[in-house]
């Protein structure tokens, strides 16, 4: 494979010297309704930039879109000038013996930056000089060579190796940025060798991976998993430009519609806080989730899934993009009112998430249970963790009450914490825990058993841990059985938003009542997270200790 890739790139570098044929970024914009409020808002955002007062996040892509939609030179000229500024800054950096800005953070921003260039080069190309286009092309070709071959990367003739982060990991959000850069520039430059590299190497790697994610979603969690919006946009681009339908080559895109519907809490304003939450630690719905669903709805071939996406889009708290720099994506149609869901239980086996709710009303009780693959750095040590919601968070990871949103340890999740010398025994990756869904029933009823032993990677401290959940009639019963080595202490823990009141075997926190049914004589204590670490803004943890090898705990509303 490595030799094949080198051969492809030798052809790429050769063809970079050959003048490109007429470009082919054939993104179909016929869906845009120029009489809509969404169009007027987007046009106003771009007009402001043309007038010399660009809003936060304004991009050359925004200007190129308006040039494509209207043919007005002022938009295309702005796109060209912005890309020229990007390339001039890169050339200045290289002349000073430095890597250009596009290489920053392991090339995380390469996708949007080369997308800007590709659209200016293609859609606005007649407004750029031949010299400009030649310089842009040389810069783009070198950038992509450096992305995919980091250990021989060169800038301005100087060897500047990169770290190769995520170039072989199609489950990582960085990979989607790399793919975005490559796909847009491949089409704009009409480079046959680059197209072959995509068709025969990168895209097969990607499609094989996502096909192994039945139920949709991302193993990076929900916040980072919203990066699938970029991937789904690339599916649409590739289909419009080449006729190849990656979006429906497997069930992942369509399943992800259902995943997000079920991952959204009943009040339709927040989502399951799975994995790192770095943008804002509290998982509030934002433009990125709306954008993802708009892209998925546009590309799915399944009418029922498209209707479900419309239903969700019309009911979530984000009725339109909150930020002007995302307004371009509101041009994608949300459809009519859509069709309400039927199923109350959803198991996304590929990413290891089980969702259940009592009904589809705003007052429903909602459950998320994490059991499955643990193999991404933005995922948490949360195998066996559950989240419970009814009107607000009843039991939830403490991570959402942190400044950083990246508290990953077992101690922040609703699991059994195993301690060795007072320190948590960590869950490790890559590992895969297993879930057996024994039964489901009316009212979101769920009975499931998880084997979470694998999450500890063979550490003799935790020889076995099984967790059973029974969710019925707005009551969650959790039963744990475990076997540990001498000196290891097991602690059942529950993270709650407010200070709990403890009396005997019962703890009350807000609207949640927790009753320890086993072991008899269990000891319950409360931990104030703000006294543990300055990263935490609020939140409490209830620790349950007791003899034996079993916990049985009932959780219900007061």
What does this structure look like?
This protein is 34% helix and 21% strand. By secondary structure, the protein is an alpha+beta fold. The protein has 3 domains: 1-210, no CATH class; 215-342, no CATH class; 345-557, Beta-galactosidase, Chain A, domain 5 (Distorted Sandwich), CATH 2.70.98. The strands form 5 sheets. Strands 12-13-14-15-22-19-18-17 form an 8-stranded antiparallel beta sheet, with no helix packed on it. Strands 3-4-5-7-8 form a 5-stranded antiparallel beta sheet, with helices on one face. Strands 10-9-16-21-20 form a 5-stranded antiparallel beta sheet, with no helix packed on it. The longest helix has 23 residues, at 73-95. It starts with a helix and ends with a strand. Mean pLDDT is 95; it is low at 10-23.
Concise account of the structure shown:
With 558 residues, this protein is an alpha+beta fold. It has helices spanning 2-15, 37-50, 60-70, 73-95, 104-107, 110-122, 130-148, 173-189, 192-210, 228-242, 252-263, 287-299, 303-315, and strands at residues 154-155, 158-159, 345-348, 353-357, 366-370, 373-374, 386-389, 393-395, 416-420, 423-424, 431-432, 434-441, 445-451, 462-472, 475-484, 488-496, 501-503, 506-509, 512-518, 523-528, 540-545, 550-557. It is globular.
């Amino acid at each position: 494979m490595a030799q094949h890739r080198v051969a492809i790139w030798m052809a790429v570098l050769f063809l970079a010297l050959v003048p490109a044929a007429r470009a082919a970024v054939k993104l179909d914009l016929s869906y845009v309704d120029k009489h809509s409020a969404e169009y007027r808002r987007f046009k106003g955002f771009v007009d402001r930039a043309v007038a010399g007062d660009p809003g936060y996040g304004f991009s050359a892509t925004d200007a190129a879109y308006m040039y494509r939609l209207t043919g007005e030179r002022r938009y295309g000229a702005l796109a060209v000038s912005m890309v020229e500024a990007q390339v001039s800054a890169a050339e200045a950096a290289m002349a000073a013996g430095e890597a250009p800005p596009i290489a920053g953070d392991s090339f995380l921003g390469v996708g949007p930056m080369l997308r800007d260039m590709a659209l200016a080069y293609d859609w606005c190309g007649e407004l750029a000089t031949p010299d400009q286009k030649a310089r842009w092309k040389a810069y783009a070709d070198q950038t992509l060579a450096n992305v995919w071959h980091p250990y021989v990367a060169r800038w301005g003739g100087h060897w500047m190796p990169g770290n190769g982060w995520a170039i072989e990991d199609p489950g990582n959000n960085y990979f989607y940025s790399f793919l975005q850069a490559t796909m847009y520039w491949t089409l704009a430059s009409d480079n046959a060798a680059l197209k072959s590299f995509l068709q025969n190497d990168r895209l097969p790697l990607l499609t094989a991976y996502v096909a192994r994610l039945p139920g949709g979603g991302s193993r990076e969690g929900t916040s980072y998993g919203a990066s699938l919006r970029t991937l789904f946009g690339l599916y649409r681009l590739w289909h419009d430009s080449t006729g190849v339908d990656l979006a429906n080559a497997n069930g992942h895109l369509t399943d992800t519609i259902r995943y997000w519907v079920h991952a959204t809490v009943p009040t339709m304003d927040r989502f399951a806080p799975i994995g790192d939450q770095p943008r804002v630690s509290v998982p509030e719905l934002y433009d990125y989730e709306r954008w993802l669903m708009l892209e998925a709805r546009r590309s799915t071939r399944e009418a029922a899934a498209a209707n479900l996406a419309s239903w969700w889009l019309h009911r979530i708290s984000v009725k339109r993009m909150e930020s002007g720099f995302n307004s371009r994506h509101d041009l994608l149609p949300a459809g009519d009112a859509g069709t309400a869901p039927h199923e109350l239980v959803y198991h996304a086996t590929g990413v290891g998430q089980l969702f259940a709710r009592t009904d589809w009303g705003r007052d429903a009780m909602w459950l998320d249970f994490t059991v499955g693959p643990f193999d991404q750095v933005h995922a948490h040590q949360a195998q066996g963790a559950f989240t419970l919601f009814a009107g607000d968070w009843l039991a939830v990871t403490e991570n959402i009450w942190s400044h950083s949103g990246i508290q990953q340890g077992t101690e922040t999740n609703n699991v059994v914490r195993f301690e060795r010398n007072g320190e948590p025994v960590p869950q490790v990756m890559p590992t895969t825990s297993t879930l057996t869904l024994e039964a489901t029933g009316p009212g979101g009823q769920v009975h499931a058993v998880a084997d979470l032993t694998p999450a500890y990677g063979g550490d003799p401290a935790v020889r076995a841990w099984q967790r059973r959940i029974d969710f019925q009639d707005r009551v969650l019963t959790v039963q744990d059985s475990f076997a540990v080595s001498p000196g290891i202490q097991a602690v059942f823990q529950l993270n709650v938003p407010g200070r709990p009141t403890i009396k005997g075997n019962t703890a009350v926190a807000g609207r949640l009542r927790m009753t320890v049914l086993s072991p008899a004589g269990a000891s319950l204590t409360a931990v104030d997270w703000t006294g543990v670490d300055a990263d935490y803004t609020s939140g409490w943890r209830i620790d349950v200790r007791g003899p034996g090898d079993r916990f049985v705990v009932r959780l219900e509303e007061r």
